[in-house]
Specification:
The chain has about 725 residues and is α+β, with helices and mostly antiparallel strands. Helices cover about 15% and strands about 40% of the residues. Among the domains are: about 270 residues, YVTN repeat-like/Quinoprotein amine dehydrogenase (Methylamine Dehydrogenase, Chain H); about 110 residues, Lipocalin (Beta Barrel), CATH 2.40.128; about 80 residues, no CATH class. α2 runs parallel beside α4 and α4 runs antiparallel to α5. The longest helix has 14 residues.
Length: about 725
């Protein structure tokens, strides 16, 4: 058994079961976790003291190459060394005056950044040719990290953090981050968040604009290492005799006090299930992430060991144990199914029967995300996206140019029974929409584009495919909604609210909830914005959300219960009224009388307002009239009455469209039915004078009528005719 005699400075995984470590005793040692054996790979020359090392990234999309083949090692003699997996030093390159304190490959493996005691930040090619000196300063640079798109570099400067783009003349971002020297930084490519650790004994979480998201309590000793898990959901923190596991929002899941000395370097395994720490006393500490919880209705699932789960039904306290052949990497519990991915297989359990899961082999290694809808679920791995039915049948695999699946997360992908939506990384203003059953782009293949960058997307889960809606939050924290079906005409993107931080659709009906500044809001019928925007405020439920402290996050919205995680990690459950869901149910099966009866029983304005909008959306004017009367919208009741007395079906239809503000569609309906005069008349009523005249001239009819109305309008306001077209036609009549 080979062990290190001196402090271990750095560690790195090649596969999920194999780790390399480097130490001040000049050894590079390989650890095999399956056989618990260690072997010496190479003993470096006595003048090389390793400081940092980083495996060359696996090439994306190449199936055969499942492990890294070479690594960069930085050392105290001012050089970095490119070393093969077998320990052969391929190249040693003079890089800095004094020690090279850190070296990092970018995500594509096309460039290497090194930083040193001389305060220089240098960019090198894959083969070790110097490309540029990005920056230089008077203090040593202790740590460096690449931005998610490999176009920016984050590095330390004493107590400051600096983000510098590779692009010359681009804006540099710099801020004071700690009260002591910053020792370690890490920047995650999935959630775009930054970690920093300092001699002020604190660790902090920042967004990529340098805004503080979390600030830890001071520890007893300086924080010597921090590292993100690959999927950006967790991070680990190392200090003297201390190892901590934290959520991405900063609160701590677990604290261990191993007898290790200081932990100088933490590395996560590729699948994110375990970490290794390089310890000051010559040990390497290994830790597995266990005890994750998943909850759905009355079921609670816990990962008890690496290959075992416990399922508890809280109604009758029945407990089931689930055993797996390989270690569990990801799991998801929703829609009466538990989906578990191990390193080689995927298991699908029904909550009705825990004994006979459906098992199928995974195409590739590590699953980084599982999303569920009622009929099927989505797996994301390093190279593709796969949709499977709960019977384990492969359905489709959507693709788009430049797709990077390694950086997708639950905020940027959404799944419903018929649609898959993906927020693009190259251009964050774009959402790609796919048909679930075929994996082909939806409709005419157009993507959805917004004027601002989009942060989070969510598809509604119920109702007809043609009515599928997508809600999203953009960079300004505006909550918008739009229709997913895109044929020719550009669908409107309508703003539902401002300062919204988190959102969720209900799993059984299309009710949307969100946290808006200091309020918790439920949009009982978001579709109202397409029907009658005036009554939207009446269809909302609001309550104060200051009890959730700052930065809360909605975890789920199942039935009439919303689960919110507060910034300190505690879960809060809110129950909302069950009646709107029943109303949705009645309306979807056209039970209008039952719906009216329900509203009369509940006697709430929000219910009547929802029913009014639902009735107009489904063209049931009798119910709409009752509902509008109940919320005191008398003008609308009168208008609906006037619609009912119209002679033809087409004109009724057109006026219902007008009621919802769809003027063009109303005009098209009338023109198709040959009701040209009515089409002209609605434009006159809306003072669309240009369009009224255009139609009259085009259909060679009622030009004199339009001119007469225009004349009367001008006389009323005591104005003279200035419109050239009207002057021109007035001469002819």
């Amino acid at each position: 058994m080979v062990t290190h005699q001196e402090l271990v400075s750095c560690v790195g995984w090649t596969t999920a079961e194999e780790l390399y470590s480097c130490s001040d005793d000049h050894q590079i040692v390989k650890w095999n976790l399956l056989t618990s054996e260690t072997t010496q790979i190479v003993k470096l020359p006595d003048d090389i003291y390793p400081i940092d090392f980083h495996w060359f990234p696996k090439s994306l999309g190449v199936k055969k190459q499942t492990q890294a083949e070479s690594f960069v090692l930085t050392s105290s003699d001012g050089k970095f060394h490119l070393i093969s997996k077998l320990g052969r030093v391929e190249k040693s390159i003079e890089a800095h005056c004094g020690a090279v304190l850190a070296g990092r490959w970018n995500y594509e493996g096309t460039a290497l950044v090194t930083v040193g005691e001389d305060g220089q930040i240098k960019i090198w090619s894959k083969t070790g040719m110097l490309r540029s000196t990005l920056a230089q300063q008077g203090t040593p640079v202790y740590s460096v990290a690449w931005g998610p798109d490999s176009e920016k570099v984050l590095y330390t400067a004493g107590k400051q953090l600096i983000i510098k783009p590779l692009q010359p003349n681009a804006k540099v971002l710099q801020w004071k981050a700690h009260d002591g020297i910053i020792l370690k930084v890490d920047w995650n490519s999935v959630n775009d968040l930054i970690l920093s650790a300092g001699e002020d004994c604190k660790y902090k979480v920042w967004d990529s604009y340098g805004r503080p998201l979390y600030n830890s309590q001071p520890h007893e000793h300086p924080i010597t290492s921090v590292a993100w898990a690959p999927d950006g959901e967790l991070f680990a923190v190392g200090s003297f005799h201390t190892l901590r596991l934290c959520d991405k929002t900063g609160w701590s899941y677990a604290l261990e006090k191993p007898n290790t000395g200081s932990i100088f370097n933490i590395a996560w395994s590729i699948d994110g299930t375990q970490i290794a720490g390089a310890c000051g006393n010559g040990h390497v500490v290994f830790a597995h992430v266990v005890e994750q919880h998943w909850e759905w209705k009355n079921f609670q699932v816990t990962l008890t060991k690496r290959r075992a789960m416990q399922v508890r039904n809280v109604l009758n306290d029945a407990v089931d144990l689930l055993e797996f052949r390989d270690r569990v990497i990801k799991a998801s519990l929703n829609y009466a199914h538990l989906v578990v991915s191990t390193s080689l297989q995927c298991y699908v359990f029904s909550t009705k029967n825990w004994n006979t899961p459906i098992i199928f082999d995974l195409k590739e290694g590590t699953v980084s995300l599982i999303l569920q809808a009622e009929r099927h679920f989505l797996l994301v791995d390093g190279s593709s996206i796969y949709l499977y039915s709960y019977e384990g049948r492969f359905i489709s695999s959507p693709k788009f140019p430049g797709m990077r699946t390694d950086i997708l997360n639950a905020q940027t992908v959404s799944l419903s029974n018929d649609t898959i939506a993906i927020r693009d990384k190259a251009d964050e203003k774009i959402i790609f929409l796919f048909e679930a059953s075929t994996g082909k782009p939806l409709g005419d293949g157009k993507f959805l584009s917004h004027k601002n960058e989009i942060l989070e997307i969510a598809l509604d889960q119920k109702g007809l495919t043609n009515d599928r809606k997508i809600a999203f939050i953009d960079k300004n924290r505006d909550l918008c909604i739009t229709s997913v079906k895109r044929f020719g005409k550009e669908e409107q993107i309508i703003k539902l609210g401002t300062m919204v931080h988190t959102l969720a659709w209900n799993d059984t009906c299309n009710i949307l909830c969100g946290l808006q500044d200091t309020r918790f809001i439920v949009w009982y019928y978001p579709n109202t914005v397409y029907v009658d925007r005036d009554i939207l405020p009446k269809t909302l439920y609001e309550r104060d959300a200051s009890e959730f402290s700052k930065n809360p996050h909605i975890v789920s919205f199942v039935g009439n219960q919303v689960t919110i995680r507060r910034a300190d990690g505690s879960l809060v459950h809110i129950s909302i009224s069950p009646y709107p869901a029943i109303l949705h149910e009645y309306v979807s099966s056209s039970k209008w009388e039952d719906a009216v009866r329900l509203c009369r029983f509940v006697k709430e304005q929000t219910m009547w307002a929802c029913l009014a909008a639902m009735a107009v959306a489904n063209r049931d004017m009798t119910t709409a009239e009752i509902a509008y009367a109940a919320i005191g919208e008398i003008d609308k009741v009168q208008y609906i009455n006037s619609i009912k007395s119209l002679p033809s079906k087409e004109s009724k239809m057109a006026h219902i469209l007008l009621f919802s503000g769809n003027i063009q569609e109303a005009e098209i309906v009338l023109l198709q039915a040959g009701l040209v005069y009515q089409a002209i008349q609605i434009n006159i009523n809306l003072y669309n004078w240009e369009r009224a005249l255009e139609l009259a001239v085009k259909y060679k009819t009622h030009v004199d009528t339009v001119l007469a109305y225009r004349q009367k309008f001008l006389e009323t306001f005591g104005k003279q005719e200035t419109n050239k077209r009207y002057l021109h036609y007035a001469e002819g009549y």
